[in-house]
Amino acid sequence: MGFFNKKENKETIKSSSSVQTNEHNPKNVLTTNLQENIHKIKSLLGKSSDIIFREIRIGKEGSISAGIIYTDGLTDTPSLQNFILETLMIDTKMVEIQRKINPDKNLITILKDYAMTVGEIKEMTDFDLLLTGLLSGDTIILIDGYDQSLMISNKHWVERGVTEPSSQTVVRGPREGFSENVRVNTALIRRKIKDPNLWLESKVIGERTKTNVAVMYINGIANDKIVKEVNLRLDNITIDGILESGNIEELIQDAPFSPFPTVYNSERPDIVAAALLEGRIAILVDGTPFVLVVPALFIQFFQSSEDYYQRADIASLVRLLRFFSFAIALLAPALFVAITTYHQAMLPPALLISLAAQREGAPFPAFFEAVIMEITFEILREAGIRMPRSIGSAMSIVGAFVVGTAAVEAGIISAAMVIVVSITAISSFVSPTYDIAIAVRMLRFGFMAIAASFGLYGITIGLIALILHLCSLRSFGVPYMSPLAPFNISDQKDTFIRLPEWKMFSRPRLINQQNEVRQQNSESAKPEAPKK
After folding, report:
1. Above 90 in pLDDT, residue 214?
2. Measuring CA to CA, which residue among 476, 474, 479, 516 is closest to residue 226?
3. Which residue among 245, 269, 296 closes a domain?
4. Domain stops at, among 132, 152, 172
5. Band (125; pLDDT cuts 50, 70, 90)
6. Are residues 458 and 396 part of one domain?
7. d(Cα 447, Cα 42) in Å, to the nearest integer?
């Protein structure tokens, strides 16, 4: 946070000076000469072939010259022809009547107020804003003799529709996911939360990409300090381009060198809507289906939207299974290396004899076996992701089976090590979010190294260091391990287990400090027992 506070004054001075420069720079505004304006736009855009210039005649008997400029492929051509060109070139009666009634009004204002049958229209005099709108798909109207222009919003481009999200699949729940259009994404959220207090703040980030970024939160539920901090961090971003929400995440996160993510991301509208109802803040970036949610807590990465669509007992059992799988994915290879290397007395005699027989001809220590198998599996997993989908999954499965079997038969790897690494790999896929699985994959090698060096004592020291690190993290001012550290008894209803809906009558305490009550009367929501 200190980094952003330190930069606040410098960025404020820089932004204010740039505004003053634009206001007093005569080269940055339109002139009254139509040809001069068109020539300047062409020169600034390098005479690009996808920028269409159309000069027309409007007014009574075509006495006024005008120019239509739009970007081919980003502009809705049918609406341009039916609602803009037709209005300017054919339906001129209303314009002439208004010019007689209001002689003091210029033609630009009359066209905007009385003639154009489109939604959003802005009067523009600044060249930079005009070019940004033009390259975003808006249509620009220039008229000879006026130093103003009309920017008409009629964007349209080919985009992916609302489909089922592929990264967070569920058995029961909505099948709709975010798309690459930020307006579609905000509409999907508003469809679920029809509250006038759901506020939206828009920003443009990226000196060259001019990427639209939206900040959504529920006023009265979200913490005002967190909202202010989010806006401060976003406003202080100075970069050439934002191509994905991951660029934003890396620039606003609290602990850039920690393997654990402090910003949550999802492509499911129901997850983002539920986070907003808890007092969190959503950051939507144009061009990506992944929406950022802050603040993010450690417990949040083990919660799935399906937990709240199933019964509480089933959801609690599955969530406990996720935590158990997390422990297996993190510690299973390290425990195997430590026990087989230093603590053989902990094993039953029959199992110890079996492991000793398997390792009789193995040329490498257990640690090197584990590292070889883990690296091999990581290569197979990465290859399966990058290969075409039709053969990627089959390639990874067949590759793992063939490599594991051949390694055991060749005597390079023991069969027990193949089993341990396989269980570890499967357990890493149980987590509902991909980011926490990546953290486990990185930490696993560190725990194997300290297990090979110090045995179970090293694993214990490593776990203590890991817990201390997690407790030191914060996400936008909120402790990362809350409600476990600091411990909050009222928020334990949705941590390791999930209580029934009628028991979850309050929002998370540290995230929300304004409107903590979710249900006014929890007893009224409790289902009644059938009368005998």
Report:
1. yes
2. 476
3. 296
4. 152
5. confident
6. yes
7. 60
Model confidence at 445, pLDDT cuts 50, 70, 90, reads very high
CA–CA dist 291, 169 (Å, integer): 16
pLDDT tens string 364-389: 888 998 898 888 888 888 877 777 76
Q: Tokens for 395, please give them.
A: 């390639």
- Give dist(CA 439, CA 463) in Å, integer: 14
**Counting Cβ atoms within 10 Å, is residue 288 exposed (0-12), middle (13-18) or buried (19+)?**
buried
Could you tell me how far CA 190 lies from the centroid of its own chain? 17
CA nearest neighbour of 296 among 325, 322, 260, 259:
260
The H or E element that residue 246 is part of is: helix 245-252
Paired tokens of 344: 């053989």
248 and 318 in a single domain? The answer is: no
Q: For the ranges 89-93, 199-203, 317-321, 327-331, which has the lowest average pLDDT?
A: 89-93
Q: Where are the alpha helices (DSSP H) in 342-474?
A: 349-358, 366-386, 389-409, 415-428, 434-454, 456-472
pLDDT at position 252 is: 94
Look at the alpha carbons of 96, 101, 103, 106 in this order and tell me if their dihedral is positive or negative. Answer: negative
CB 168 within 8 A of CB 266: yes
Cβ neighbours for 289, distance < 8 A, ≥ 6 positions apart: 165, 177, 178, 179, 180, 185, 267
Residues 276 and 217 in one domain: yes
| Amino acid present at 50 | D
Q: What does the pLDDT read at residue 115?
A: 73
Q: Could you tell me which residue, 88 or 331, shows the higher pLDDT?
A: 331
pLDDT in tens, 172-196: 888 899 999 898 999 999 999 999 9
3-state secondary structure string across 492-525: HHECCCECCHHHCCECCCCCCCCCCECCCCHHHH
Q: Which domain holds residue 68?
A: 22-152
- The answer on 274 and 209 residing in a single domain is yes
Same domain, 319 and 457: yes
